[in-house]
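Margin note from the TA: students keep mixing up input and output lines. Inputs are the sequences; the output is the structure of the whole complex. Example:
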Amino acid sequence: MTPDAKPFVARVLVYPRAEVLDPQGRAIEGALERIGFDGVQRIRAGKSFEVALRAASSTEASEAVDRMCRQLLANPIVEDYSVEWIRA
Amino acid sequence: MTPDAKPFVARVLVYPRAEVLDPQGRAIEGALERIGFDGVQRIRAGKSFEVALRAASSTEASEAVDRMCRQLLANPIVEDYSVEWIRA
Amino acid sequence: MDPGVKCGIVVFPGSNCDHDVYHVLGHVLEQETLFLWHQKTSLEGCELIVLPGGFSYGDYLRAGSMAAHSPIMAAVRRHAEAGGRVLGICNGFQMLLEAGLLPGAMRRNRDLRFLSVDVHLRVERDDLVYCSGYRRGEVLRMPIAHAEGNYVDTDEALDDLERSGQVVFRYVDSEGNLASGANLNGSKRSIAGVCSAEGNVLGLMPHPERCAEDLLGNGDGLALLAGAVQAGGGAELTAAVGG
Amino acid sequence: MTASGSLAGEPAVDAGLASEHGLTTEEYGGLRDLLGRVPTYTELGIASALYSEHCSYKSSKIHLRRFPTRSRRVVHGPGENAGVVDIGHGWVAAFKMESHNHPSFIEPYQGAATGVGGILRDVFTMGARPIACLDSLRFGDIDGERGARMRHLVDGVVRGIGDYGNCVGIPTVGGETGFHSSYNGNILVNAFALGVCRRERIFTAVASGAGNPILYAGSRTGRDGIHGATMASEAFDSESEAKRPTVQVGDPFTEKVLLEASLEAMRSGVVLGVQDMGAAGLTSSCFEMAARGGAGVEIDLDLVPLREASLTPYEIMLSESQERMVFVTQRGQEGTVVSILSRWGLQARTIGRVTDDGRARLTFRGRTVADMPVEPLVDGAPVYDRPARPPADLARRQEDVRPEAPDDPLGALKGLLGTPELGDKEWIFRQYDSTVRSNTIVGPGSDAAVLRLKGTPSALALTSDVNPSYCWLDPRLGGRQAVAEAVRNLATVGAEPVGMTNCLNFGSPENPEIAWQLRECISGMADACRAFDVPVISGNVSLYNETEGEAVRPTPTVAMVGVIDELMELGVEGELNRLLGCGFWRAGDRVLLLGRSGDEFGGSAYQRLLYGVEAGRPPSVDLGAEAALCALLRRARRSGWLSGCHDLAEGGLIVALAECAMAWGLGMRGSFDGGPLSLFSEGQGRAIVTASPARVDDVLSSAEAAGVAASDIGEVGGDRILLGFDGGVVDSPVDELRAVWTEALPRAVG
Ligand SMILES: Nc1ncnc2c1ncn2[C@@H]1O[C@H](COP(=O)(O)OP(=O)(O)O)[C@@H](O)[C@H]1O
Ligand SMILES: [Mg+2]
């Protein structure tokens, strides 16, 4: 990180991979149905992280966030992640 | 729900309220630092839900999702939620 | 055992301390006790309602959040509002919070791990029917076993709670002193159990039903359940506590 | 059947594809002969799963035959989902141990969680309500930078076990945790579960009665875990990464409702057979159930509830999606089961029926995709007597390396207590609910866990043990020692062993040196089982635990269950949990050492953990002396003479005394007739007991009558450990030892 680093904010969304069981999503669907929401078709339950970081450039920031996702925030064996930029 | 209901998809983000301690966010910050990410300033750790539903109109859909959030998906004492539309 | 009250233990899918509570109420205290299925809408004349520990509906969202919407909870709410006794233990406490029958909320434990250990509790009130077998300031030992027992509310709400004397148990060290090392889950103000303003609804994270027999090496929890099934109470209870 | 059973898009079946499925040329040839034609793709998948080591035990069967499997208590021995023994008062216990090593290495949280889920289902499909779990874990090096991945594995495994068992509401009351570099590329996660039920309520997994419906219940079938059984039967290599999608995800909530609903359904009287879908999913459950009933099955795969519509018959048959069961009911009574399950929020659906022609016939979209004889595939799976020979370097391994006597025995003690291996395991077991179901008298942290059995005067004791270093240095001796230690741990609480299960974790049996280890370990275990009269009632074999040619230490984990007939003979109610634990708690009690102390350092913690030496002959195991010691301990317990008991194991006498002192923070003062080195000897067949002064003579005279050496070595009291020995004294505040001991593991796992 260089001294002239700029602030960035990323949003990371992590969901169970499509072919992997999502017990939480199923449970929430069931609960919503029980309390009378009849239009619900499907819930995917995941995690979201807001990551504020400083980096020299947007490329660097995006590389860093990608690495964080792979190393810590998401478990690639069972989860997919996506990154959006709130402050790029 | 009327027979001519249309499909909508909302994304609900639920985060610990600003004044509530976010132990998970702190833990992730610590872990990221330990594995060598030095530019990270702040992590907020929350939940995200993708809600696919059918509703007669976008107003109806957005009211339904709002009620889901208040009744089940978020606990207002400790959490704030926001809704975005993926398919409106 | 003296004639006490008819006890109902609500069984949610995922409850797993229902049988343990039944064992103490039905066998140790010899009370008339029945299980109430979560889909029921009537409490079948039960005077003490216990919401037991466990992982109702898997607790996949927030602990207790889905159970709080069960059909039976409307009846439990009416019972509570009429001054009836409702005791929530662990997951049952979480449900009472989620249902708004008690104030506050739970977060994950401070170190984000499940905690299964014995803790010490200080009894903050002895004028509740539940605490009639304890003295104020007495230190109890009880097991906790939870991942989300980190009690929280806003500072104003907590101040109100303290002022109205609704804090019933606090985590303390073995001498009865507040200490952060004794407050393992990180609860605000070391709160382990709270009651409603009228004192008829009690929620606590520790498990009195797991320490109600000498055989298991600890009988500290028996008095709480014995108090809960004491005959009388009801209206007098409300009057005595004054809210 | 013709090749019409092949579906569009399926690969052509030939010897090459069979070999990719792990079948040898002979196995594939045998399969073709059996069918009289080229198998369909679905059939090939089914056969490869049934012939896998995991399902067929093809390399171990021949050795497993040595285990004694009968006693007057055994109700069901090996072969059922779990073994069953009579525990008195009309009750039986069903228990088993299973490995989930490979999945846990790939995805520690889900791997370990689904391991617990699987073993619980094995128990409740027998009609028994699970009441306790144990977990036996082996990890690699967790220190420093290189240990980062291992720390992640420790964290994930412990969370996975905890989250699953806690949610289902079954207490984890004990286990073991070891560390050794041989597990760097291959950790071990062995999960044990025990359930109880009235004797007449036991169920077995049998499909019987032609025409009876087969019901599918629980979670839908997804793509997860396809080929898990085959994966568990292969060594790791760099390609294992690519196998990642095969990891299953556990849903403990569904398990809990499935447990309750299944037990209720079994009580309804309409259920004839129950089987969970474990390794190899629908394949093994259908084939094994049919084989046990001497029947056949007909399944319409279109009726299997799926998570994704696109699943192929091959995938449906091999999926290892969790939390699924199969029921066979009386014809016309399936509605009863369906309604019980639906009350618990579960779906049940008839997917086929039992037939009487001994074949498994599977249809999919109007086509027959498999039509195979059941019995020859299940019981006729190949059995191998693999070549076995002792390791080339065995003599060198066993060379006696005389340890140096410690200059500073207290420093050495602290050194040992400060290792993750001997350090306090509370960091692990506090993440496990150990008191739910309110039966736990002694939980984790002692030699054996003790659970009362509600409604009876008796209690059950549980332990799990093995010393992989001993097994590596001398597998036969190591096998014996594991069984002996388990029996001894049960004896410390006065329990009579009633049955044993095991999990045999080894490298590839195709390596003759590993095949030899396996054979020798089993022989040693079998000898000891006979000597102690303990039947083996269930078990599991996990081979191919190796990565790039580096095998794990031979690890034949033993889990044993004992019965205490009259709990109240042992002491007064309010004191039982202390006096059945292994700690000093009453000042003034005498401390007695039972058993003969010789110098035994091969594979000892002293050599291994302080000097990095893993060599020599492991401690000898005199089965007669062990039996005498255990009988004495049980007698002393039943007579109510003892206020505590702890056996001597890793680290020897001084470590055992320290553990007794640290338990309640109460020290001791005494002296031991031996040099500084003997304090650390791991001579077997020894235990420390405490008794009030009035009982000392009873213990000593019974010991003499039983031919067990015994000496009074000191008194409980104070806040220090003060032990004189020939040439010096170990003197330390208990608190100081405790600090080192409790910090060891949390520090190591970071
Ligand atoms: N993974 C684990 N899960 C639960 N309990 C454990 C685990 N590892 C160790 N323990 C507990 O810690 C204590 C010490 O283990 P160990 O040294 O293996 O005992 P022993 O030598 O008497 O067999 C035992 O009570 C054991 O049950
Ligand atoms: Mg031991």
